Amino acid sequence: MATCKSTSADTVFEIWLASRANPNSTGQRLPPGSHRPLCSRKLRLALRILKSCSAEIFGMLWSLHPWRIGLTLALEIIRGLSPAFKGYSQALLINEVQRLIISRQFTCGDLLHLVGAETTRIGFEGLLDYLASSSEDVIHSSTQFLLEYKQMQQRVRLDVPTLNDPVIRDLLHESELFVRSFNGMSSFGLFSTFDLTHILSLISELVSHLLILASVTSGDFHLHALLLSLILSVLPLMLGSRHAQADLEGCDDSVEIRALVTQEKMHFLAYSNSHRPELALFGLGPWILQSWAQARKTMLKSGRQESILKEAERIPSYLISNINISGLLFVMQNIPLLLATHSPSASLGNFLLYRNSIESLLFTIRRLLHAISMAYQNIFLMAAFCAASSIKPRLHPDDDNVVQYKNNPGGMSITARNLTYTYPGSTDPAVKDVNITINAGESIAIVGFNGSGKSTLAKILLRILDHDSGELLVNDIDIRRYWPEEFHAHVSAAFQDFSKYDASVRENIAVGFVEELQNNDAVESAVHLAGAAGLVRSLAQGLETELDFISTSSRSDATPWASPHGTKSELSRHGLSGGEWQRIALSRAFMRANRPEVDLILFDEPTSSLDAHAQKRVFDSLQTISRPASGAKKTVIYITHRLSTARHADKIVMMDKGTIVEFGTHEELLTRNGQYASLYKASV
Ligand SMILES: Nc1ncnc2c1ncn2[C@@H]1O[C@H](COP(=O)(O)OP(=O)(O)OP(=O)(O)O)[C@@H](O)[C@H]1O
């Protein structure tokens, strides 16, 4: 056993982190998913994890099917006794044959009787196996669902800054391995409730072999055999067959395909980093989770029904296949040997039983050690799963510091003081010492050279990123005191790197305010504001047209949401040009921007791919909804390289190298004759 350095660790997260210390290299971490060496330090950590998390995990799983899990545990323990009982029963059979032969009263009828008794035992064994595996299937699919659900929940609640942390990414990776191990897909092998029962079963097998060995050597043979026989005979009668309870509704293939597609789409959304800003901004987490859960349940249900149907067809063959004819033949093969020896005192059965028990004992010990070493590795994955569930998203305020966002009738006011932000892994700040005051209801254009920090500043203002230092006040309250979800309900945005969803036009737009997904008026109004009505009309299936974003996307993580079996929708997907996609993204932003509770609209390069008419249309719409003839104003911020557009804003922010170099009205900045003035003159 190796020795590892000791570190102090209190929470499950810290224990998990300590378990990743590389024993061969101080200060280095083991890569995520790698095996933990067996050493006294890691063993102690494993025990602490078991103490802290196992009750939570097994309590969670136990609550799913208490009686079934209890039953499965009992069955596994009894199944563990089977090999020993089998050896014992066969030894009895041999002894009986030997006795009959020696007493010269052997008849074929006696032989058939003995063979019948042995066959009955084997039949019971097969039935026991069938009942145990049926019950396991039910527990397995519920467990799988619950853990996958929890994992999706972990993903969608985490914000961009949290996910940017490489340690958190490693934690989520190991948490995922833990969940995958319930599908048998983990590199560590399977460690699930059934591995635990497997360990119990192996322990009971070990004990039974020891018991048999003790019996053979002490001669106290029949009592134990009787007990084992009784247990094996009575237990199956107590068990209800899952087969009888199965709900064998017919399966609808199209429902399954739809469910599978939805499940994959939602999974992709939850895991995609490129969609993360919109996911946070539009508060899509609960909707993704709910849609995924519904689809996943349908898939698991249909999978279970399929296996029930298959099993129902398979019961006779299952039982027959479990009758180990070779074992019986092995016993029979000893009869000639008995006939030859004719010894009145020899007991070949006892001799074989002893020999088999010794062999089985060693084999069982090997399997048990293997199972325990698998479990040891998976304990650390379990810690990752537990710790991941309790990560506090970076943008969440402390409970005692929370302030409720109050709707500002005149739009959102923003004050930034010495705002600085550096991307993880970078040395130079992308935003540096930004100071600005934006009054409620103002329209602000942010302009500047490429890479000057405009989009980064926008993401900080939108509470997608968290500034490293400085202060950001929204309606005179520190933005860090608002719940991000609550704050996001009062803003709408179109990002420069907006998302293209592998979905219909309607879905692509309505994710801006997903509660109105089926509200045609709301969707059509958003389409109208973005000047996309003509585009939608030109599509054969209008809002229901499925969009093909692959052909127009060049992003590296543009993973296709695989449609199984090459479905019809895949064939009829519609590609869009860059400008058309931009109109769809703007419609999405207008879906929310038009709502009364929204105080801030932020568009990052909203019209970069639009023609002059479309561009005018978008700015007219912005004007209409942010400065309505009656009703509340909204603050509008837009980032643009088109200075002919910027000049219409109330004030202009000129950025360079992460900082604001000029701020004022168009006229003021021209008079100043600085960077803005030279850029403006160059553009006209
Ligand atoms: N995810 C990131 N990780 C590290 N650095 C980044 C990241 N995103 C942007 N940057 C860097 O931050 C700086 C500011 O980028 P930002 O996108 O805010 O500029 P911008 O003014 O919006 O540029 P553009 O006009 O080209 O859109 C750039 O130097 C950029 O390389």
TrEMBL record:
SUPFAM superfamilies for this protein: P-loop containing nucleoside triphosphate hydrolases
Listed GO MF terms: ATP binding; ATP hydrolysis activity; ATPase-coupled lipid transmembrane transporter activity
Location of the ABC transporter domain: 414-682
CDD domains: ABCC_MRP_Like (cd03228)
Stored Pfam families: ABC_tran (PF00005)
Entries under InterPro entries matching the protein: AAA+_ATPase, ABC_transporter-like_ATP-bd, ABC_transporter-like_CS, P-loop_NTPase, Type_1_exporter
SMART domains for the chain: AAA
Region of interest (Disordered), residue spans: 554-574
TM region(s), chain numbering: none
PROSITE patterns: ABC_TRANSPORTER_1, ABC_TRANSPORTER_2
Gene3D superfamilies, sorted: P-loop containing nucleotide triphosphate hydrolases
Keywords: ATP-binding, Nucleotide-binding
Sequence similarity: Belongs to the ABC transporter superfamily. ABCB family. Heavy Metal importer (TC 3.A.1.210) subfamily.
Protein name: ABC transporter domain-containing protein
Organism field: Postia placenta MAD-698-R-SB12
